[in-house]
Amino acid sequence: MESIERVTKVLRGELPDRVPVGLHCYLLACRMHGGRFDEILRSGELQAEAQLNAWRTFGHDVIMLENGVCAEAEALGCAIRYTADGPPHVAEPLIKELDDFENLRVPDPERTFPLNELLKATRIVKQETGGKVFINGRSDQGPIALALALTGPERFLTMLMEPERRDWCLRFVDFCSRVNVVLGEAQRLAGADSSTIGLAGTSLISPALFDAFELPGARAFCAALRRTGGFAFVHACGDETLLLENLLATGADCLELDPQTDAETCKHVVQGRASVLGMIDPAQVMRFGTPETVRRQASRILALMGSGGGFIIGPGCALPPDTPVENVQALMECARREGVYGADGRLRGKA
């Protein structure tokens, strides 16, 4: 079974031959490719080369394309600090005065850097893989995360709690949502099978604030992706056990989750309603562990999450650039060996 069919079956609630693997590995791909990250992450051609090299090395089922979590903020005018060996960061918020918001316009992804380079990478990867692999062309950060980047995190989180700022915050996250939607639709036109936005979880906001300020935009994004015939993913870092129902309310086809989220609860709540990608620790296990450490966690997560389908195993967040290649290979080997399905939907274990 080709990767594209394997992943698509999972997302449609069907049973594939085995649990697919999705690698959030853009930083590791940069290191494996060689050269400066600030050059690779600004070039669609170099991003594609790096990701294709990683895919040919590991053979994972989902290629997750991005250049960090600042692309939309940069497209809107934020100053971004790129580094030679790590991810980019917002150097300075764009919104100094609240009225500055009125000057913002949703950028055209095809004509605006670096969004145009992200789309270029998607097109190249689509062509070079011949449609055999599932491509997740990411739409960067969701409404609140983009608002945090544009205004400054502490400032915007404070405004969310101020009744007199509520209407302004609602208008602002609606604008940020429209930026997400336009990029997601462009990713689909470029050949991506799905797109992702990163949502603010309970480490930043309460479920009530999520429903008020994040949920409407996330729903709009997921609905827009589905209208294109693609699949909508939402990402939430940290322990989101208490936010699972809220995340499902977005209408997403797949929730990208960290290992801090309780796997048993997640399986019970999400099964049959959406798929899950992730649950492997990208830092303590993938970066600092050994191949045996990776195999132990992967085996445990497969046993908890894999039965009956609906699961794509992988790191919950981006792999650090210095993640050992042998640890990624151990994850792939475990999925291929222990993630095989029987006709009854149970994992057969070791072949």
Helix and strand layout, with pairings?
Layout: H1 3-11, E1 22-23, H2 26-33, H3 37-40, H4 44-58, E2 62-65, H5 71-75, E3 79-81, E4 89-92, H6 115-129, E5 134-137, H7 143-151, H8 153-160, H9 166-190, E6 194-199, H10 207-227, E7 231-236, H11 244-248, E8 254-257, H12 263-270, E9 275-280, H13 291-305, E10 311-315, H14 325-338
Helix pairs in contact: 2-4, 4-6, 6-9, 7-8, 7-9, 9-10, 13-14
Report the CATH architecture: Alpha-Beta Barrel
Shape call? globular
Adjacency order of strands in the biggest sheet: 6-7-8-9-10
Structural class: alpha/beta
The chain-level mean pLDDT equals 97
Low-confidence stretches: none
Indicate how many domains the architecture comprises. Answer: 1
Distance between the termini: 17 Å
The description of the largest β-sheet is: 5 strands, parallel
Strand content bin: 5-15%
Plain-language structure description:
This protein has one domain: TIM Barrel. Helices cover 46% and strands 13% of the residues. It has 14 helices and ten strands. The protein has helices at residues 3-11, 26-33, 37-40, 44-58, 71-75, 115-129, 143-151, 153-160, 166-190, 207-227, 244-248, 263-270, 291-305, 325-338, and strands spanning 22-23, 62-65, 79-81, 89-92, 134-137, 194-199, 231-236, 254-257, 275-280, 311-315. Helix 11 links the parallel strand 7 and strand 8 (254-257). Helix 2 packs across helix 4, helix 4 runs parallel beside helix 6 (115-129) and helix 13 packs parallel to helix 14 (325-338). The mean pLDDT is 97.
